[in-house]
């Protein structure tokens, strides 16, 4: 009986051991001795799928990557082999002997635990002990580089920074993102759009690599001295060979999280030379052409012409001011309209900028526009250059003459004899004609009773007037309409006086419209263009049809000076302008 019990117990223990031996759950580390500056990989590996995996707390370590999950399911000679792994990448916080505690998982209803692992962390080492791990392989096979076209540019001289990611042929990259974007303090910067990441081949330190261009930036330094370019930092998942092969002999790749940086760069910016610097130098650096042109040189008084100051070429076109136009005081000059047509690529800014002035002469005569100079620093010769425009003479053929025009007024120097008048004081009377005035008493007179009763009679009238005023004040919509009508009459009063005089009428009408916009929208004359006006009025909830009417009136003012116009047309334009201003003022919000 005892023998039978012993046999049963032994059979039960053997059976339990075989069942238990079928499930494996263990912790594997890449190394047990490592420097404080190294990384440790730990894999929790099982041969059956499980649930509710709980990793250890990883005391004295920082998790820098993971968990990464991988599953291998293979069949060899009809036999299935299954492996599931949870991988973590750890960085030690300090030196010493540390124990990574147990991890747990539930497999087929049973809880399994790994054995604790002891790790010895030593002082920092130059290279890992033993064979390199996946993180070390990734560091050696992937590089982020910032290529700077020029490290010692002049102030306001453009240069480029191109960020390239180099990857060795045996390494792969996935899931990259920018962790920290560089901020280009003390630089004017513009990123160049990159359409698609094209993989190219190139050399890195003499070895063949694949690379992609991640970012292109054009920079113009705004300060002199040593300026620092902040680094670009990327978080990347790197695929490196694990040293193992699958059943077909192909290399099994291991994914490693990696942070790579291009490193900071220092740019030594040179100041522009003081020797030979023109007094009117405005900071232009590059290679430029300069011109001053007018739309016409002959016209009549109150007609308009445009004078354009333009700089074209290659350089810091957006970073300097154009010279100003100077004209005689008898020419009415409006604020210029600034235009830019500049493209920026890896060679820097290229294009043209201009200021266009509208000039309206008031009197007949010849008016010279003096020559204008433009100075810039030429990078090719490293010297200053000056371009001077020719003098332009504006000939106003018809119109009134200025009252103070030299040569058109004469002053007489003829002296006249003064004849004394013997009867100089004849206007003073020397005799009087007095008469007596009979006065009647004021009390109880007609004047007395009138002054006494009039205030009492005015009280009902004041009450009626006050009620009408309160009613009028309460009429918000009516007040808005009346105010808008008064405003329209105010701005258009000058134009109404000039009805019948084509040039003067349309000039005053256009000025009235501009003054109205300046008062209501608080914008300067230099901002007046049709697109800007349309966008501002639309943004203030003015109906599109009314905006179109306003724009059409402005266009009529521009065209009417050069086309035959009848009195009826001018009256219609005036009425349309008054109605449009009134409606706009009601709708503005």
From TrEMBL:
Residues 1-21 form the signal peptide. The chain crosses the membrane at residues 446-465. The keyword Acyltransferase does not apply. The keyword Signal applies. Keywords: Membrane, Signal, Transmembrane, Transmembrane helix. InterPro entries: BatD. Coiled coil: none annotated. This is Protein BatD. It comes from Winogradskyella ouciana.
């Amino acid at each position: 009986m005892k023998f039978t019990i012993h046999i049963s117990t032994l059979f039960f223990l053997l059976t339990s051991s075989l069942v238990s031996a079928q499930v494996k759950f263990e912790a594997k580390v890449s190394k047990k001795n490592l420097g404080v500056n190294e990384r440790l990989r730990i894999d929790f590996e099982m041969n059956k799928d499980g649930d509710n995996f709980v990793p250890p707390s990883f005391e004295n370590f920082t998790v820098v990557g993971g968990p990464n999950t991988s599953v291998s399911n293979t069949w060899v000679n009809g036999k299935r082999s299954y492996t599931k792994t949870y991988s973590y990448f750890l960085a030690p916080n300090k030196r010493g002997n540390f124990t990574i505690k147990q991890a747990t998982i539930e497999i087929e209803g049973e809880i399994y635990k790994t054995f604790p692992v002891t790790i010895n962390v030593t002082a920092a080492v130059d290279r890992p002990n033993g064979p390199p791990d996946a993180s070390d392989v990734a560091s050696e096979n992937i590089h982020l580089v910032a290529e700077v076209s020029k490290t010692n540019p002049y102030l306001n001289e453009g240069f480029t920074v191109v960020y390239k990611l180099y990857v060795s042929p045996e390494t792969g990259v996935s899931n990259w993102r920018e962790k920290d974007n560089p901020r280009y303090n003390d630089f004017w910067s513009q990123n160049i759009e990159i359409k698609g990441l094209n993989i190219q081949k190139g050399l890195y330190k003499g070895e063949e690599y694949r690379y992609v261009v991640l970012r292109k930036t054009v920079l113009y330094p705004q300060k002199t001295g040593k300026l620092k370019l902040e680094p670009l930092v990327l978080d990347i998942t790197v695929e490196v060979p694990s040293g193992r092969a699958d059943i077909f002999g192909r290399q099994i790749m291991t994914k490693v999280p990696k942070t790579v940086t291009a490193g900071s760069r220092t740019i030594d910016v040179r100041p522009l030379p003081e020797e030979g610097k023109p007094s009117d130098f405005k900071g232009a650096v590059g290679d430029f052409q300069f011109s001053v042109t007018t739309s016409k040189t002959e016209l009549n008084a109150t007609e308009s012409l445009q004078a354009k100051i333009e700089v074209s070429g290659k350089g810091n076109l957006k970073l300097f001011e154009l010279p100003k136009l100077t004209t005689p005081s008898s020419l009415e000059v409006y604020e210029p309209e600034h235009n830019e047509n500049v493209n920026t690529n890896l060679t820097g800014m290229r294009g043209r900028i201009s200021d266009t002035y509208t000039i309206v002469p008031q009197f007949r005569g010849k008016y010279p526009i003096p020559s204008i100079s433009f100075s810039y620093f030429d990078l090719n010769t490293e010297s200053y250059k000056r371009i001077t425009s020719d003098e332009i003479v504006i000939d106003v053929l018809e119109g009134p003459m200025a009252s103070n025009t030299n040569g058109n007024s004469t002053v007489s120097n003829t002296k006249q004899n003064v004849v004394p008048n013997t009867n100089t004081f004849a206007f003073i009377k020397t005799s009087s004609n007095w008469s007596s005035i009979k006065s009647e008493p004021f009390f109880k007179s007609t004047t007395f009773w009138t002054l006494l009763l009039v205030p009492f009679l005015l009280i009902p009238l004041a009450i009626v007037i006050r009620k009408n005023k309160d009613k009028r004040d309460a009429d918000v919509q009516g007040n808005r309409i009346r105010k808008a009508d008064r405003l329209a009459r105010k701005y258009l009063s000058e134009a109404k006086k000039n009805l019948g005089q084509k040039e003067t009428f349309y000039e005053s009408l256009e000025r009235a419209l501009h003054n109205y916009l300046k008062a209501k929208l608080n914008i300067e004359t230099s901002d007046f263009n049709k697109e800007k006006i349309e966008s501002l009025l639309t943004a203030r909830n003015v109906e599109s049809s009314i905006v179109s009417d306003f724009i059409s009136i402005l266009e009529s003012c521009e065209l009417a000076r050069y086309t035959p116009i009848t009195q009826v047309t001018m009256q219609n334009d005036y009425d349309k302008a008054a109605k449009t201003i009134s409606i706009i003022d009601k709708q503005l919000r």
